[in-house]
TrEMBL record:
SUPFAM superfamilies for this protein: Bacterial exopeptidase dimerisation domain (SSF55031), Zn-dependent exopeptidases (SSF53187)
Organism of derivation: Glycine soja
Record keywords, A-Z: Hydrolase, Manganese, Metal-binding, Purine metabolism
Subunit structure: Homodimer.
GO molecular function, one term: metal ion binding
Cofactor requirement: Mn(2+)
Annotated Pfam families: Peptidase_M20
A GO biological process held by the record: purine nucleobase metabolic process
Xref: InterPro entries: Amidase_Cbmase (IPR010158), Bact_exopeptidase_dim_dom (IPR036264), Peptidase_M20 (IPR002933)
Protein name: Ureidoglycolate hydrolase isoform C
Length: 385
């Protein structure tokens, strides 16, 4: 960001902001005179994340951070003079991997008191607290600083994120740009079952209450409730399933599941969450296990893109003679929370076979440069208004 001539700041949890205040000319008496810029106006922001889940790709998020910096450089090279400042944001911890909740940085920017409170006691899988992790990364260890991250509504006049589609539609239909109209509503749950465990050879089947089988039955129940929702837009995944003690000849005495379920329709998604809870309770009765934990980590509403931002992206794609398509985002993004602060929009580019969250994730130079050009032109339009 500094190499691109942006003034950089980092907040208490590692969100990184690079602001282009455009340039200024020496006015009479050597005073600063902004050349066309009104620096006190709300900035137009763009950005994404650079963190990734294990064994995944290198385009998810990164395209929207490096692409945003490149879009600003393109505007500078073209001699464009914005009326509003432009700001690039690299959000911290968009993936839930380390502290169990997605969009940690953008959630805080959007003012989540619940998250600020829970981070005071959160620990990661190696039992390192969030504050210690933040401190060792050079950020604040002081829990009172968490709410200093909150941004005021109106901080930005618009927020636009460039991202790979993480689905196959654009590539299948040979379309260059996706214009996101809405971001699906994500929810994540943590569930733990407990049984007596015991010797895999000596304990006869009627005497068992196998926590591993309880978890397996709940995983299949997640699939059933999702498929029964009546819509292809409902999805559910058990991405983490751990058994304790994890020995082949010991009946699992504990099981830990983490469930991700989403839908573009919030009500329908909430019904699935409720049914999963009912199934977990039913399994305790039929299998004689204890439900030692059932927590909804997050149950977020969908976000709707702003009409004016959609229009700006659409016009930019037309002026660049690129094909485009309106579409929903089934993946969540920092835009899901930035939409709580300002009008939001997203620009998708195709990715190889729609692959994402796996090493085969790939986007071509041509598609990435199309995305950067559309982003640059969109930022130019939004920052001239
Ligand atoms: O899971 C998601 O939708 C995002 O890629 N973190
Ligand atoms: Mn991701
Ligand atoms: Mn992402
Ligand atoms: Mn033995």
């Amino acid at each position: 960001m500094e190499l691109a001539g942006l003034s950089v700041r980092e907040d208490a949890v590692g969100n990184i902001f690079g602001r282009w205040l455009a340039w200024w000319l020496k006015g009479e008496g050597g005073r600063k005179r902004w050349d066309g810029l009104e620096p006190e106006l709300a900035a137009v922001a763009t950005g994404s994340h650079i963190d990734a889940i294990p064994y995944s790709g290198k385009y998810d998020g990164v395209v929207g951070v490096l692409g945003a910096i490149e879009a600003i450089r393109v505007l500078k090279r073209s001699g464009f003079k914005p009326r509003r400042p432009l700001e690039v944001i690299s959000f911290t911890s968009e993936e839930p991997t380390r502290f169990g909740i997605g969009c940690l940085g953008s959630r805080l920017l959007a003012g989540s008191e619940d998250l600020a409170n829970s981070l005071k006691t959160s620990t990661d899988i190696q039992n390192i607290s969030f504050l210690d992790a933040a401190g060792s990364a050079g950020y604040s260890k002081n829990e009172d600083d968490l709410s200093s991250v909150f941004l005021k509504k109106g901080t930005y006049s618009a927020f636009v994120e460039l991202h790979i589609e993480q689905g196959p539609i654009l590539e299948d239909e040979g379309i260059s740009i996706g214009i996101v109209t809405a971001i699906a509503a994500p929810a994540s749950l943590t569930v733990e079952f407990e049984g007596n465990g015991g010797h895999a050879g000596a304990a006869l089947m009627p005497n068992r209450n196998d926590a591993g089988l309880a978890a397996s039955e709940l995983a299949l129940a997640v699939e059933r409730h999702v498929l029964d929702s009546g819509s292809i837009d409902t999805v559910g995944t058990v991405g983490i399933l751990e058994l304790h003690p994890g020995a082949i000849n010991s009946i699992p005495s504990k099981s830990h599941l983490e469930i991700d379920t989403r839908d573009i329709d919030e009500e329908r998604r909430n019904k699935v969450v409720e049914k999963i809870h009912q199934s977990a309770i039913k399994i305790t009765k039929t299998r004689g296990v204890k439900l030692s934990d059932f927590r909804v980590i997050n149950q977020d509403p969908p976000a709707i893109s702003d009409e004016a931002v959609i229009k700006a992206v659409e016009t930019a794609t037309k002026e660049l003679n690129l094909t485009s398509k309106l579409m929903i985002s089934r993946a969540y993004h920092d835009s899901l929370f930035m939409a709580r602060l300002s009008p939001m929009g997203m620009i998708f580019i195709p990715c190889y076979k729609g692959y994402s969250h796996k090493p085969e994730e790939f986007a071509t130079i041509e598609d990435m440069s199309n995305g950067v050009k559309v982003l640059a032109l969109t930022l130019a339009k939004l920052s001239s208004q």
